[in-house]
Amino acid sequence: MLTFLKTNLRWLGTGFLLTFASAFGQTWFISLFASTIKAEHGLTDGAWGSLYTVATLCAAGLMFWRGSVADTVPLSRLAPIMALVFAVACVGMAATGSIWILGISLFLLRFCGQGMFSHIAMTAMGRWFEATRGKAVSLANLGHPAGEIIVPILIVLSIAVFGPRPAWLGTAAVLALVIAPLLWGLLRNDRAPRGHARAANTPGLKGRQWKRRDAAQHWLLPALLPVLLTPGFISTVTFFHQAHIAEVKGWTLALMAPGYSAFATATVASALIAGWAADRLGPHRLLPILLLPMGVGIALLAPSGHVVAWYAALGFIGITQGISTTLWGVLLPAVYGTQHLGSIRSLTMIIMVISTAIGPGITGILIDYRINFPVQSLFIGGWCLLLALGCWMISHRLAQELSLTRIEPA
């Protein structure tokens, strides 16, 4: 592991930096400002969730249209440009004086943060690595939990000391003056490690380099649609409604804060284990267990009145989140090849972004109709357990196709 890290530190560091900085566009980050935003604009939970849904769906649409730029534009240009656009979005959040500016700023935050930063990172890992792809993806994805541990503390302190608007401006400064130059410096030379030329054109099933249209027509992506939607939906709505959960349960946000550490720790541990397992056993073998921890975790929110249930719930959700980020980063290039990976990944990213878009809107409206989120969580947990059975069937069929691909000559 140490030799691998030393040899590939620059490239792994690029992936880590992108996933870490994606924090500024993630739901849990934006939710830290939710009370202020709702009060300033007079929004209910349903109205705020619906606005968030519209902004995120628009971001998903742009991802579908422009996500393939990761295949055609050098990352040394694409990543810094996205960081600067990200910074503009943060300035917009600080300067928001109307619902329109708020909506546009939310759209850019979601497109850059949850969308392009994560998309670029995982496309790069899938293309740069082959035999150690699972390990590379899991290490690069450590930026997500690192951000979840470090950023909330700094932002909460910034809001308390300076206020929400200066906190947004400070975030914009970090993106423009620190993240963008670092990305340019790390990516100014193309990666060309030993064996990269072969890995860059690694084929997928049937020895083919699948295009996005072909992948969309293949049985696997439609079958995986609900599986792709679910982890993002659940983690998003859980963080998005944390203030509501605190109110229903009689907890305080300060008392719930250790849940972030439980989530991040579980995410790190499961991502590293999933990376090891994907390289040795095959990524498809992770599918049957993917949603089981999350289903158990989200269901724990319903019956318990003790805050320990919150810590446990986030820990179990973190296990699935860690497996998920590693799984899709390894499975897609293994199945569809790497030549058009950016285009295909953008399609799956759209699905994941849509799940984070519809979640706050649907659950927020249900809350307005007095169906609180802990009650909703029981049904969500049951959905996860049902999907786990479907994942076992998908894994079994995919194993057969991958086996045939290995036997057939190139």
From TrEMBL:
<dbReference type="Pfam" id="PF07690">
    <property type="entry name" value="MFS_1"/>
</dbReference>
<dbReference type="InterPro" id="IPR020846">
    <property type="entry name" value="MFS_dom"/>
</dbReference>
<feature type="transmembrane region" description="Helical">
    <location>
        <begin position="107"/>
        <end position="129"/>
    </location>
</feature>
<protein>
    <submittedName>
        <fullName>MFS transporter</fullName>
    </submittedName>
</protein>
<feature type="domain" description="Major facilitator superfamily (MFS) profile">
    <location>
        <begin position="1"/>
        <end position="399"/>
    </location>
</feature>
<feature type="transmembrane region" description="Helical">
    <location>
        <begin position="141"/>
        <end position="162"/>
    </location>
</feature>
<feature type="transmembrane region" description="Helical">
    <location>
        <begin position="46"/>
        <end position="66"/>
    </location>
</feature>
<feature type="transmembrane region" description="Helical">
    <location>
        <begin position="219"/>
        <end position="240"/>
    </location>
</feature>
<feature type="transmembrane region" description="Helical">
    <location>
        <begin position="12"/>
        <end position="34"/>
    </location>
</feature>
<feature type="transmembrane region" description="Helical">
    <location>
        <begin position="78"/>
        <end position="101"/>
    </location>
</feature>
<feature type="transmembrane region" description="Helical">
    <location>
        <begin position="285"/>
        <end position="302"/>
    </location>
</feature>
<keyword id="KW-0812">Transmembrane</keyword>
<keyword id="KW-0472">Membrane</keyword>
<feature type="transmembrane region" description="Helical">
    <location>
        <begin position="168"/>
        <end position="187"/>
    </location>
</feature>
<feature type="transmembrane region" description="Helical">
    <location>
        <begin position="260"/>
        <end position="278"/>
    </location>
</feature>
<dbReference type="InterPro" id="IPR011701">
    <property type="entry name" value="MFS"/>
</dbReference>
<feature type="transmembrane region" description="Helical">
    <location>
        <begin position="308"/>
        <end position="335"/>
    </location>
</feature>
<dbReference type="GO" id="GO:0022857">
    <property type="term" value="F:transmembrane transporter activity"/>
</dbReference>
<dbReference type="InterPro" id="IPR050327">
    <property type="entry name" value="Proton-linked_MCT"/>
</dbReference>
<keyword id="KW-1133">Transmembrane helix</keyword>
<feature type="transmembrane region" description="Helical">
    <location>
        <begin position="373"/>
        <end position="394"/>
    </location>
</feature>
<dbReference type="InterPro" id="IPR036259">
    <property type="entry name" value="MFS_trans_sf"/>
</dbReference>
<feature type="transmembrane region" description="Helical">
    <location>
        <begin position="347"/>
        <end position="367"/>
    </location>
</feature>
